[in-house]
Amino acid sequence: MNTHAQGTPPRLLLVEDDATSQGFFRAALEALPATVDIAGSVAQALQMGAATRHDLWLIDANLPDGSGQELLQRLRALHPGVPALAHTADNGAGMQQSLHEAGFERLLVKPMRRAELLDAVRASLGPAGASEPPPAEEPATPDWDENAALSALNGQQAHVVALRELFLSELPVARDAVSVALRQHDDGALRRQLHRLQASCGFVGASRLGRAVRQLHQAPESDMARRQFDAAVSALLH
User: Fold this and answer.
1) Could you give the C-alpha distances from 160 to 16, 18, 123, 127, 169, in angstroms and in order?
2) 3-class SS at 87?
3) Is 92 exposed, middle or buried (0-12, 13-18, 19+ CB in 10 A)?
């Protein structure tokens, strides 16, 4: 049950370990308006949850030190009744069922539109989150250009520029981590890296790389998929 007081901005806990995704969520949620606390791990989220009762939790299903399902149960032990939304780039039926059974009200698949995120948050907050109608969204485009990122961020050019700069600064590290996972045949590490990249690509409009990430996830042993991934990364970095 939501107990947020009318007339004051809700306080939200965002649990997300990817910096680009954090930037998207923060920019969208603070426009509600809302106060957004950000944790990058289960441990940080529990520390923040113990210190503050939030009006809504937004939890990544896959975190460096545990799962979103596990975190939700531990947070609920501290504060029963707080609504929770899950977000993930994995839209498989098994993941959806697991998250719903864990107690999440709704699953948001990354990358999502700003309007979709705000609609879900407002619905979970109830009347306290319904002060502003959801903004109109431009149609998504399949190309690497400004339109996809502007659509995701409701036309906020400054946010697009900032998120793209952050994304590009972290892309070499992500590329190297994918390469190491492929060489070592570490399927778990590869899935984690590609999961994070897929969400980030959507938020900044890196559609070509996003497609390459999906293809590599489906066929990690394919030389063609690896070459397409490398080419897509190189195109963005050069």
Assistant:
1) 19, 16, 26, 30, 14
2) strand
3) exposed
Q: What is the DSSP string of 179-203?
A: HHHHHTT-HHHHHHHHHHHHHHHHH
**Lookup: tokens for 16:** 């997300």
Q: Could you give all domains of the chain from N- to C-terminal order, each with its CATH number?
A: 11-137 (3.40.50.2300), 155-237 (no CATH)
CB contact at 8 A, 197 and 174:
yes
**pLDDT tens track of the chain, all 238 residues?**
454 555 689 999 999 999 999 999 998 998 888 999 999 999 999 999 999 999 999 999 999 999 999 999 999 999 998 999 999 988 788 888 999 999 999 999 998 999 999 999 999 998 655 444 444 443 433 435 566 666 666 777 788 788 889 999 999 999 999 999 999 999 999 999 999 999 898 888 888 898 899 989 988 988 888 989 998 999 888 7
- Measured between alpha carbons, how far is 201 from 93 in angstroms, rounded to an integer? 22
What stretches of the chain show up as alpha helix (H) in DSSP? 19-30, 42-51, 68-78, 93-102, 114-125, 146-152, 157-183, 187-204, 207-218, 223-237
